Amino acid sequence: MKNSPKADQVLEPKKTIGQTLNDLKQGSFFTIDKVKPVGALQARKQGDGAVMLYWRYTVGTRESNKSERIKIGIYDSTAPVKSHTPGKKGYSVLAAMKFAEAMAIEHAEHREEGGRPALKLAELAAAVAEVAKAESEAKHTLINLLYGYCDLLQTREQVSHKDARGIFRLHVAEAFPDLAKAQANTITSKQVATILRTLTEAGKPRTANKLRAYAGAAYKIALTAEFDPSVPIAFQDFNVIVNPVLATVQDKKGNQADKNPLTPTEMIQYWMIIKNVKGIKGSILRFHLLTGGQRIEQLVNLLCQDVNKSEKFVKIYDSKGKNHVKREHFVPLLPEALAELQSIESSGTYALTTETGKTHVNALTLTRWASAAVGTSIDEFKLKRVRSGVETLLANQQVSQETRGRLQSHGITGIQNAHYNAYDYTIEKHQALQTLLDTLNEKIEIRKYDSAEKSNLAQNARLV
Q1: C-alpha radius of gyration, the chain, whole number
Q2: How far apart are CA 198 and CA 309, in angstroms?
Q3: By the 8 A CB rule, do 142 and 172 touch?
Q4: Which residues have CB under 8 Å from 328's CB, separation 6+?
Q5: What is the CATH T-level fold of the domain 264-463, as seen in this structure?
Q6: How many CB atoms sit inside 10 A of residue 49's CB?
Q7: What tens-digit pLDDT sequence spans the chain (464 residues)?
């Protein structure tokens, strides 16, 4: 028979799990219980006295394995014992066990694929991919493709980059902001047609056709980027597989020529007006006319190094035409044109300047100067009408179409001109410019026809 305890002996009661956790020594781990289907729930007292709960499990095979502890959270001694979820202060033991069991089940179900570590790596890779996708979507939008095309034009020194950028900004970025932010490779032909239709219905068919041409070229660049070494590789990242612009249709009204030249009489009137404009404004306006009404964007970019005062000619770079390849265009200078050029002070890069060559006169500025000088003297005056006015005046004076084309750098096409004809037409250009000036100064009369002569000319034209 066992001895009964003495009267002064008191049996020490068994500690609760809460008491055990509170009495833990700092830095030591304590296994609370096994976790099904794998691992164990552990606790460790930290330096600040708080108890941190962990799930400890084994990774790998029996031959080569390692253990890993996953931090669950702080033990909350005040939490209800039967609570399954953590509170504001931390976890009950049961809540921590439930959390550990969820991780254990996940690990066990994917052990063949590497268990929980492999899952976390896969989740991380998925998160990285999602971030990359979001960044790509933010970068490879419709408007970024269109602006990227403008940047390429600018790099290639194409003056049209300004026109294209302005059209895209006004009629895509501002008019259709949601569409502009959409992925470029998701844009449909119907959506492109909606943009174009908006312009057409607003009475801007020419702008609609220009937007269509520029946007179509942008998509074409993206499509060929993989195979064209002259195109920046960044265009390939847009992943464009179809050009949605191709299925749209041009507005025929927008393709009609803006044929509204100044008449020979109006040309003389314009010359008399700008002859009296003082200072650099008058010099540049007169130089523009005396060189045959060259394209304004090209003329204002005239470089000092491309002015040959001794041989009396200037070299302009014409990028209009097939493939927008820059072509040297030589224009002879009359003494009067050379005098106007020499009156402009420039010791820098550009010849037509108000800042001694640091920058060139803006084409829009030149247009404003001309409009301000003319005022209401000529109906519906626009500086661009001067170019076609020169063409018309020279045609009136029977200067050949070939010479007019050479002087204004247009209409020079075909195999014969591209590969065989190396003649520079300097003499003919100079003669045409002298004819222009003599007509403007009324030394040569404008040729006029009476009704009978016009009828005969029209009849002959029909027979030809």
Answers
A1: 41
A2: 50
A3: yes
A4: 315, 316, 317, 318
A5: hpI Integrase; Chain A (1.10.443)
A6: 9
A7: 455 555 444 444 678 888 888 889 998 889 999 999 988 999 999 989 999 999 998 876 555 567 889 899 999 999 998 898 999 999 999 999 999 999 888 888 877 776 777 677 777 766 666 666 666 556 899 999 999 999 999 998 887 898 999 999 999 999 999 999 999 999 999 999 999 999 999 999 999 999 999 999 999 999 999 899 989 989 999 999 999 999 999 887 766 655 689 999 999 999 999 999 999 999 999 999 999 999 998 999 999 999 999 999 999 988 765 555 678 899 999 999 999 999 998 888 999 999 888 899 999 999 999 999 999 999 999 999 999 999 999 999 999 999 999 999 885 655 555 555 567 889 999 999 999 999 999 999 998 865 555 555 455 444 43
Residue 167 · residue 211 · CB < 8 Å: yes
Q: Which pair of structure tokens corresponds to residue 10?
A: 């008191």
| Contact in structure between 447 and 397 (CB atoms under 8 Å) | yes
pTM of the entire predicted model: 0.59
How many angstroms separate the CA atoms of 229 and 316, rounded?
Answer: 28
Tracing tokens 């750098």 back to the chain, one arrives at: 409
CB within 8 Å of 464: residues ≥ 6 apart = none
Name the CATH code of domain 140-255 (choices 1.10.150, 2.60.40, 3.30.70, 3.40.50).
1.10.150
Beta carbons of 352 and 287 less than 8 angstroms apart:
yes
Q: Which residue ranges does the chain devote to CATH 1.10.150?
A: 140-255
Report how far residue 406's alpha carbon sits from residue 424's, in angstroms, rounded to the nearest whole number. 9
**Amino acid present at 458:** A
Question: Which of 169, 49, 54, 60 minimizes the C-alpha distance to 107?
Answer: 60
CA distance 73 to 117: 19
